[in-house]
From TrEMBL, chain A:
Residues 80-274 form the B30.2/SPRY domain. InterPro entries: B30.2/SPRY (IPR001870), B30.2/SPRY_sf (IPR043136), ConA-like_dom_sf (IPR013320), F-box-like_dom_sf (IPR036047), F-box_dom (IPR001810), FBXO45-Fsn/SPSB_families (IPR050672), SPRY_dom (IPR003877). This is F-box/SPRY domain-containing protein 1. GO terms for cellular component: SCF ubiquitin ligase complex; synapse. It is found in: Synapse. Keywords: Synapse.
Automatic annotation (TrEMBL), chain B:
It comes from Pristionchus mayeri. Keywords: Ubl conjugation pathway. Residues 109-156 form the SKP1 component dimerisation domain. This is SKP1 component dimerisation domain-containing protein. It holds the Pfam family Skp1. The lineage of its organism: Eukaryota, Metazoa, Ecdysozoa, Nematoda, Chromadorea. GO terms for biological process: ubiquitin-dependent protein catabolic process. InterPro entries: SKP1, SKP1-like, SKP1-like_dim_sf, SKP1/BTB/POZ_sf, Skp1_comp_dimer. Coiled coil: none annotated. Transmembrane segments: none annotated.
Amino acid sequence: KEEAAPLSVHVHKTPLRKVPAVSANRLPQSILIHIFQYLQLKDLRSCMISCRHWFNVLSQEDSLVWRSHALLSLPQCALSDSSLLAETKSYKAKLRALAHAWNPKDSSKHNYVRPNLLTMHRHPVAQSTDGIRGKRGVSSGVHAYEITWEGPLGTVAVVGVATKHAALHCPGYVALLGSDDQSWGWNLVDNSLLHNAEQLGVYPRVNNPPKYQVEERIRMIIDCDSKCVYFERSATSEFLGIAFSSLPPVKLFPAVCAVYGNTEVSMVYLGPATMG
Amino acid sequence: TFTTEETESVTIERDLLRHAANLDKLISETGRDASNNPLPIHLPRVTKETMDALIAWFNEHKDDADWVEKKDEDNKIEDIPDYDKQTFDAIDQQILYGLIIAAELLDIKPLFDSTCKVVAGKLNGMTVEQMREYLDVECDFTEEELKTIREENEWCNS
């Protein structure tokens, strides 16, 4: 066991060299992540933009910073669901998916968003078609969304995109998404493409396209640069062809509309994508 | 005994250092001299001013309870002991960074916790321009890179 050293200060007269100034932007990653963990997401974005070193530190998407934010914002039921967030590989990606998730405030009142924050659920209300939009719309870049219809489809189960003006509720059972010029939809029940109340044909554009199987994962890609929307089967990354083209240069939101009581649809934003 | 970058050596009472979790390890790593005294521990990048602030901190906290790691959700940025808050808000940034570095080196968890929170508190709510001023740097991205980073992280603003 060490003895206590005497309390005395011994000072040399001539310093060997002056310590170079430490700048916060050159602090090591191990220290910066402990500072960044206390900042809100919007401040983290500012940090990323300030300088390259900080951007590099924050590009470690599974670091303490993103992990602690994810653990605080994402519900345990979402994080522990092994398949729900399977395609979002990093904590930062999971946070980003949450930011784009179904918007409980931009929905028909007959829907709610489940505690996992990523799955919408339609109440069993008779004679009602009910839609919901994601929290964030996109008008530039290419964006991929993984969509899984988890309940029975019923007669109308439409997946697609909508402007912020598209209606999210109407009486009866109709293909609401695609019923006017503010939305574009793919009805998974009969494989028809819809826009402006017109049926634009069957999709994928093959003879007898396979029926959507409940719980099948599909990817919807909104390509704002090429102004089109297309879909892929997640399991095989099979490209199903362009569904809609000549989209207007406005903010487009992922959207669905449903008629079946207690049906559920999950949507996980996967991030910017390159044209497949 | 510690030496700093400016070759002052400072001798500190052992029990002042009880919050420095790394100490035993450092002492055994630096070994002993011919007469079996422990060799001085050299602290790179630590100035005299930092050393002074560090010793003052040790004195202030020498009777504190042992550090208990808090869970993420309980560990708030405002949770800083009053002495630390008042002292660190006012001191020179260089000394503040020096303290963070020393705290990391010596594994002084309560000091590391306070100092990181203080720096985070300063960055809180800053614009990008204010951050660059604080860092004393010019923008080192191209316009193109800036645009991409801004867009890809736009979601953080929600």
